[in-house]
């Protein structure tokens, strides 16, 4: 159990804010600190703050949801969840890793772009990952790429880390291509990314990937990811599929720029 923090949500002016623009006040010192939800570096530095904010207050259920539908898809295929070698991409402070460990997996490798995520994982969940890399998948060094690939992962999970300026298209595909053919891909995405009126490169890429020859979808489910600051439910899709083959560069270039 971590120390509780004094968190205050803004009382007005939050309507119409994008999810990545949402913020709160942390009352730890005399002057309250204004933190955006996407200030992950600062949030992870305060032990227990991420958990209290997203899981206790805003009732996020995504790690459990994505892990559950991954487990049922693997079971449907008569494979063993406990034999999976999982790459947790956008691992943060290890909430998804912890969930996967409850099911039991063979190997668990975490990746995040910021060192604060790694530091928080080592501080709070040191037992969860077999290895954890701080890396930018849009510009991986050869040695980093070889080392991560050497884990021979046959499953990738990405939870609450796609869209809103988090993991970009190029990085997602780079990680996808590191997973073995016939390996499992499990992720979640805000429901609006499925809307054809969303013309952003990321939305178009995700929509096309889901229905492409590169992925065979096993399970797709709309569910309540968490609440917004003003208490409204935020709906996401959780998706689990199997990778058929690597996504070629030509697929990616269609969505860049
Ligand atoms: C909302 S957190 C989710 C963390 C964890 N998956 C969970 O469910 O609690 C999003 C994470 O994605 C990471 N992230 C953002 N962009 C990234 C990138 N390009 N590569 C890897 N991780 C990234 C952030 O640093 C942050 O830790």
Automatic annotation (TrEMBL):
The record's section on CDD domains has: AdoMet_MTases
Please give a single GO biological process term from the UniProt record. methylation
Q: Which Gene3D superfamilies match?
A: Vaccinia Virus protein VP39 (3.40.50.150)
Query: Can you provide one Gene Ontology molecular function annotated for this UniProt record?
Result: methyltransferase activity
Which controlled-vocabulary keywords does the entry list? Methyltransferase, Transferase
Instruction: Please give the Pfam families that the UniProt record associates with this protein.
Output: Methyltransf_23
State if Transcription regulation is listed as a keyword: no
The keyword Zinc is annotated on this UniProt entry: no
UniProt name for this protein: Methyltransferase domain-containing protein
Q: Which organism is it from?
A: Aliikangiella maris
